[in-house]
Design a protein that fits this description.
The chain is about 45% helix and about 15% strand.
């Protein structure tokens, strides 16, 4: 039986990573820590520019705005709209948005995984539950579609020694592997340490990152992909001293996402195939926000052509109160899941750690 997980920010919350609401307070904490670490200006500037814009937004208007000023999706959509118009903010662009997000998540994840932390083992156990305690020969029956940029799943795969793929034939996308300051690290050594394999390994767990990853860096206008540890990437000479030529490969959470990049399109295409062939779909910590309708369209389009799906589990503390999730349930009832929808108004931690939910998994 093929199982597909769709993960949102609520999945990563137990690691201290922010939801869309409250992202800026976490970003400010990271910026203050970078100040204490005396990091160089190229690292701090994107955070400073983002926080300055956010501060201006909160003080500029005396009446409530029709957006949530502490929600990163709303604020970055406003920034994207400004960049289209004549009032483009000098020094702030898509590159700055990417880096502001990447630094925030990479530093918070690094801190969550520091020595002595219980976070690594917690998420490794969650992944073990997702895999169903199966052996390596059955990993290919599980796919994870994530809207998150962080690398918690990758870290968990490394801890459990689970091979995973990102839906790409890495030999054909000019993939480079990065660790420390070394771009020449041999592929076989990287695989042994990072567990990332090519999609031709059908027994591996499939991990599709629809919005990119803090682990991915590339040269602009290049089809290649550089993969490695996020903090090392963010402090690499390629990004800090040649930012004009490089970018962290993430799609900012704005109203106008671009899905034309071939690597992003591969992620979405593979996610579509996984959903189209899924017997069970489990949505954890994701509420299909209005700023990300693409994910909703992907789900509906895939299910229109799915002849085997029979069960869907939605795990979200707001499962019973969210209009978006209520609409999702209505759509699913109309399509495939009249008798197999479970709406669980609980946190991800409860779902993965409480034995009472093992029966529906």
């Amino acid at each position: 039986m093929k199982t597909v997980y769709i993960l949102g920010a609520g999945f990563s919350k137990d690691a201290g990573l922010p939801l869309a609401d409250g992202f800026f307070s976490v970003m400010k904490d990271v910026w203050l820590n970078l100040e204490l670490e005396h990091q160089t200006a190229p690292i701090k500037v994107p955070l400073e520019e983002t926080l300055r814009f956010h501060s201006e937004l909160n003080t500029q208007f005396s009446i409530p705005l029709p957006i949530q000023s502490d929600n990163i999706e709303d604020v970055f959509s406003l920034l994207a709209a400004e960049s289209i118009g004549k009032n483009h903010r000098a020094g702030f662009d898509r590159f700055s948005m990417q880096n502001a997000i990447a630094y925030t998540l990479a530093i918070k994840t690094r801190d969550a995984y520091e020595a002595g932390s219980k976070i690594p083992q917690k998420y490794a156990e969650w992944l073990r539950v997702m895999l169903g305690h199966t052996d390596a020969n059955d990993y290919g029956n599980t796919s994870i579609i994530t809207l998150n940029y962080d690398d918690i799943i990758e870290r968990s795969c490394n801890l459990l020694k689970v091979n995973y793929n990102i839906g790409l034939d890495l030999d054909n996308v000019n993939c480079k592997y990065y660790q420390g300051t070394d771009w020449s690290r041999k592929k076989e050594n990287f695989e042994a340490n990072a567990r990332l394999v090519s999609n031709i390994d059908t027994n591996s767990l499939s991990l599709y990152k629809l919005h990119g990853s803090v682990r991915w860096l590339r040269q602009k206008d290049s089809a290649g992909l550089m993969i490695g540890d996020p903090v090392s990437l963010l402090t690499s000479e390629e990004l800090t001293f040649a930012p004009v030529n490089h970018e962290i490969f993430i799609e900012p959470p704005t109203f106008g996402k671009s899905l034309i990049d071939p690597i992003i399109r591969f992620q979405w295409a593979n996610a579509y195939k996984a959903l189209m062939n899924a017997h069970k779909i489990i949505i954890v910590g994701y509420s299909f926000p209005k700023t990300d309708r693409h994910a909703l369209y992907l789900l509906i389009a895939a299910l229109r052509n799915n002849a085997v799906a029979s069960e869907c589990i939605i795990v979200n503390p707001d499962a019973e109160t969210s209009d978006e999730l209520t609409n999702i349930r209505t759509v699913l009832c109309e399509m495939h899941f009249s008798y197999g929808i479970h709406m669980l108004g609980i946190k991800a931690s409860e779902f993965f750690e409480d034995s009472q939910y093992r029966d529906i998994l």
